[in-house]
Each structure stands twice: as C-alpha cells, then as structure tokens.
Amino acid sequence: MRDVGMFGRDLVVADHSMQPGSGSVVVVIVDGTLSLGRPVLDGNVLRLAFGNAAMPAYAL
C-alpha cells in the first residue's frame, strides 16, 4: 500500500466491527500471507487492489 502512504514496517490497527465499503482498506489472507488492500468491483469480478503499482489487482 505504498502508493497510499503505508509501508512495510508500519503498524496497522484493524476494527473487525466495521463493514468494508468502497475505498476501505481491508486486511486479508492471500496465499497464506496477511495483506492489506482495497476491494474493487471490476464489472462482475471482485478484485483486491494493493495500492502498489508493482502489484496487479488480485481477483477474489
């Protein structure tokens, strides 16, 4: 998420009581690794955008 100002050693606090919405940053497990991203609806496909130009959006 470096393109939005979040870097590898930053501390992230997640509130599980909130529902994610458009533009929200979410914590997910992708291939066994914790990741941060933003859910994006691309047509009928939900993708996770990582906020890093070097990483393409991941289809969920």
Commentary on this structure:
With 60 residues, the chain is mainly β. The protein has one domain (2-17, 25-59). 0% of the residues lie in helices and 37% in strands. A four-stranded antiparallel beta sheet has the order 1-2-3-4, with no helix packed on it. The model has no long low-confidence stretch (mean pLDDT 86).
In short:
The protein is mainly β.
The number of helical segments is: 0
What radius of gyration results from the CA coordinates?
11 Å
Order of helices and strands: EEEE
Low-confidence stretches: none
Let me know the average pLDDT.
86
The neighbouring-strand order within the major sheet is 1-2-3-4
Structural category is mainly beta
InterPro entries: LexA/Signal_pep-like_sf
Keywords:
60 residues; mainly beta; LexA/Signal_pep-like_sf
Break the fold down into its secondary structure elements and pairings.
Elements: E1 26-30, E2 33-42, E3 45-49, E4 58-59
